Amino acid sequence: MNLLSQLATSFQHLFxxxxxxxxxxxxxxxIGEHTDYNEGFVLPAAIDKAIYLEVGRRSDDNIHFVAxxxxxxxxxxxxxxxxxxxxxDYLLGVIAxxxxxxxxxxxxxxxxxxxxxxxxxxSSSAALENGVxxxxxxxxxLGLDRITLLKLSQRAENEFVGAKVGxxxxxxxxxxxxxxxxxxxxxxxxxxxxxxxxxxxSVVLCDSRVKHSLVTSxxxxxxxxxxxxxRFLQTYYPEIKSLRDVTMAMLDQHLRDTEPLIYRRCAYxxxxxxxxxxxVAALEENDIATFGQLMYGSHEGLSKWYExxxxxxxxxxxxxxxxxxxxxxxxxxxxxxxxxxxxVREESLEAFTDQIMKQYKAxxxxxxxxxxxxxxxxxxxxxxxxxx
Length: 388
Ligand code: GLA
Hints:
By secondary structure, the chain is an alpha+beta fold. It contains 11 helices and 13 strands. 47% of the residues are buried.
């Protein structure tokens, strides 16, 4: 039985009635990492790996969630929404934010499952949050727009789950458009869709199988280091609000010698924003070779200056860059594990897969998973005839 039939059967069996089926995708990010919470730019897209949720209204104020893959349930009530420090917090957090914002909702039943590997840095949490928010909006006829919904998801993760993540993951998952990347200005939330015209080139993810967690990782420390850099510079340039307003000249003059660690963190972010702008220009010219070089530059910065990589991710990039038909590779997402993103010529894909698997095993003792992704639409209601 395919995944969606299993979910439908499970929902029917537990709750009867006709639920709404939602698909909420994970994301990739081509370039622009750790820039979102510094009011910079990102270039993400939603992918064909997603969380699927069957969601129905209840006649009371109770909530009943079933994590189909984990065979776990959570039951509670709208009047008692406290963090559980489990997967249920991604759903509870969104419900709590809807209530705090004054949106009138009732109890729900929800059975979900998915094809996004957990802890692989593909934003399964943002997908889950967006999925339940999207369902609440539909089921209770709230009429909220997508930007409002994704901001509620981010607040759920920041306030309820306790991970101070930026807006990129929720934005990409909710706003994605098939065959397009999103150029997002995380300061103004202005965005444009750029067609991903990479004839004969695949977007390939190599999973280090090192699980990352943003709650316990150094993610929050990196944010604090960037904020410290901004505070230092504000004594010289009071108009600065974030690293978006900072130049390398300012950093060189005021931070390089006195605060070398903060300097490296901030310099990475300033340079990554520039790499993204150069990368977007290269994509417009269809110059994938230049784009690929910028990806290697991004990895180098993330690994050496921002220090959010890990040996396994460095090894994956190192192997990739030696393979024919590879334009670029870098670690993706928060870091400390998860996946690398690679641009690989289709005719080289088989040899690439073979070499990555063999050499990664030889150098780390670990297996890797390799996913070729398609760029898909953001969170949406699924027509019941679709099979997954
Ligand atoms: C995680 C966060 C995002 C972003 C990336 C790094 O995925 O959820 O907000 O900061 O890390 O670019």
